[in-house]
Task: structure prediction
Amino acid sequence: MADRILLAHGSGGKLMHDLIRQSFVTTLGNPILEKLDDSAVFDLKGRLAFTTDSYVVSPIFFPGGDIGRLAVCGTVNDLSMTGARPLYLSLSFIIEEGLLLADLEKIVNSIGEAAAEAGVKIVTGDTKVVDKGSADRLFINTSGVGVVPEGIDISGANARPGDKIIVSGTLGDHGIAVLSQREGLRFQVPVPSDCAPLNTMVAEMLATGAEIHCLRDPTRGGLATTLNEFAQQSRVGIRLDELSLPVEPAVLGACELLGFDPLYVANEGKLVAVVAPGDTDRVLAAIRQNRYGRKAVVIGQVVGEHPGRVVLKTRLGASRIVDVLVGELLPRIC
Amino acid sequence: MADRILLAHGSGGKLMHDLIRQSFVTTLGNPILEKLDDSAVFDLKGRLAFTTDSYVVSPIFFPGGDIGRLAVCGTVNDLSMTGARPLYLSLSFIIEEGLLLADLEKIVNSIGEAAAEAGVKIVTGDTKVVDKGSADRLFINTSGVGVVPEGIDISGANARPGDKIIVSGTLGDHGIAVLSQREGLRFQVPVPSDCAPLNTMVAEMLATGAEIHCLRDPTRGGLATTLNEFAQQSRVGIRLDELSLPVEPAVLGACELLGFDPLYVANEGKLVAVVAPGDTDRVLAAIRQNRYGRKAVVIGQVVGEHPGRVVLKTRLGASRIVDVLVGELLPRIC
Result:
């Protein structure tokens, strides 16, 4: 049983200390984490951004990523979407007894790689182990803090009529990647998750000096849910052009097969930006220069009519309301 | 099924938005949380403390508290143990499908009460729902940020020979309370958990101006584990006097019955302080004036001999090494 996680790994005792020092600190270490006090302590100046997410994706390994990469990218992205520069993450594991140590090791490595890519440090953590059957392999919570640069005010409540809506790439890749792995589906063209940290992209967008009003990463509930949130928070209408929506043919095929609408399928490496109309081109150019934004496009605009509602102009020229998700589409996608 | 949590409550869609707005925001609301953006944004100055903990206690309701109160107090205490003033918490739920909404409501209320008592605000959150059998009712992660006042340097690495060791009250109450609830044990005198926020106590201790070198709350692994951590981090020896250790008779009785050593049983409303010898009396007086510190006592001292080891002088005058916990004593106690 030495190759598996035991309840004693979560006891606060010797096995837990060994696991933390030999695996987590070795892979993720930095001077703040290595102090191993009850809290990390560090200097920060300015307006702080603070966010949290628990990750329960099933399976924990999927094409294009794993729960570790997802846990870093998701929280980095939540910080970035307020315009903040992500700096420090916490890392908390809930492990089901019996998890292979080799699997945990792979995930810790993946966390280390994603944190290095995003330029963030893991500074504090926690490890709990629950008895077999009381969790499903591994859940991870990451919380994060970052600093919002002077003069930045980005919020879902800031959209104004006339603003353009940009999406940074194709829709639905993450949801379809996880689902296909879970259900053992094989498509002709495999769909990898888009899971990626977007903080560099956001920094490059902000560096243009453009008026960026809203940013959000359309994860659970997909683009449709994010746009409905903007419409409600800002009390504006949103018009989308179906023909402009970027979807990979393989994702579109999978969605048609499974009866999903890609507007509602989760993304983990995409952002939606609401931008002042005169600044659209330079924001779009900045996004497209980033490795994760090559396929960015304008997909619609903010209007004064039908406040709180998102309306799609279909490829046949008709209009239909795009509502928030009702019920459950794809459980445990993140 | 309308009285239970469904998978759709975690979908990012309508049910989730309704749950967040109608339950969480109504009970826990404040202007920062109510913005409902991807991150909370607020001003902070100075040295920041940042910590995280996931709570998996079973059962979720126990004498003297529940998982909600525990999740607030535990994280408030981890911040306090670096001398920080706790300010803001994040709150992330992993809910098993089928949890009674009434139970969730009770726990959210309990979170609100504990946060009010500790004077902290819940500013950001996350809700995930997993399918029945993939979690055990409810897990909660709270992370927290606070500010460390100028001139404070408290760390497990700061103990020096000659320092006195104070514990703020009786040992093992939380562990025995949870265990008795879980196993359906009935003792003549019921044992409630000591689960409590200690930030006010720490502020009162710091206000004395005393030289406080280390602070820690002895949770999982109990007092023995905390003192071993201090001994190793500070490379000093620690001597304990068994006769001075405060344990409630009911807890002692339960421990004897069950074969536990109260030195290893978890506490959730106690702290251990390592204090310069000349300042012991005023720190002790400050702790005793706090409602959660009436039974505070000096239990031992830091020595230059046997660095890295904790040695107990037993009531018979013998000495024995108090090692870190090996194996698992009480799983899922926090």
